Here is the input.
Amino acid sequence: MRISQVSMREIRVPLREPFRISSGLVAERRILLVELTDHDGVTAWSECVAGEAPYYSAETVDTAWFAIREWFAPRLLGRTLGDPHETAALLGRDVRGHRMALAALEMGVWVLRANRAGVALARMLGGTRERVDVGISLGIQPSPAMLVERATLAQSEGYRRIKLKIGPGHDIAWVAAVREGLGPDAAVMVDANNAYSLSDVDVLRKLDAFDLLMIEQPLEHEDLVSHAVLQRELRTPLCLDESITSPARAADMIALGSGRIINIKPGRVGGFGPSLQIHALAQEHGVPVWCGGMLESGIGRACNVALASLPGFSIAGDISPSARYWSRDIVTPEWAMDEHGSMRVPLHRPGLGVDVDVDYVDDITVRREDLAV
Ligand code: OSB
Ligand code: MG
Here is the structure.
């Protein structure tokens, strides 16, 4: 398999509802899509998870665009590719960081492989589940009552796990109200997106009272040591998201005891190869993993659903249905969830398992650049 073209596009799509986390607000998404073409004319779509501004990680849509054009696409173009497990190493050799840009190409190579072989991406990755459990991530709301309203609706829609975004000033009262409103059996967790420090340990300790499934990324993203200190103070498991940028960081988390659960986002860790390595390492150590989300379009969502079908993904992922995010998704059929909070894995369709609505993508494309050999 030889890649003859890497095509980048930026699309702009409004979210149905603005999404607020401790580090910023997103109302409209700028999404970088990649389309690979090989020498036989077979194509594959993938998506970069970088945001518009560096509030989640250092990468943005614009840095990823630059990194793909300058460093990553030239390593793929014209080269005969073998085992897709080796793509991440090929792309990343002597490059520091830029893993979201790298991942967009790496995942594209896996999708292209699956398209060429006529097999589902989920199967190619080793997925075994026919259905995956769906969780929802609720943004910070102006008041506890408004959050309870959202959480109650999500519970009635069938979501298997409800995640509440928290931050200083939007924490204990919000979580207490939701626990009270949903009852003791609801699977509730929180995600702080780095908003606290060890000096907030008294506030964080109070969260232990609410029987949360986990507390996601309470502290600074580079600080595994402080997470280890905090984990020793809490009964509730910590889960790391932003901190886990590679299999090596996952190994460090396990060695240090910085957390007990891992959120895997393939677009954050450098693609599917590194995700499979983290999944294997976690299984070896009895660490549960689940698939996170980055407000992806239907293309990135297809990648997440495929990964979440692997056996170690034992907790519902942030893989909500298309309609939760968009009035119209860029794939058909759109991603749907049944009333039991379950989503079907398209194991019997090749590649992503959905069709990209290219006419619609064309309509919402604001820039495009084709790189070819
Ligand atoms: O921290 O998991 C996060 C969205 C954007 C950036 C970071 C995060 C999130 C979410 C949304 O929680 C998950 C989703 O895609 O539904
Ligand atoms: Mg998170």
Summary: The mean pLDDT is 97. The radius of gyration is 20 Å.
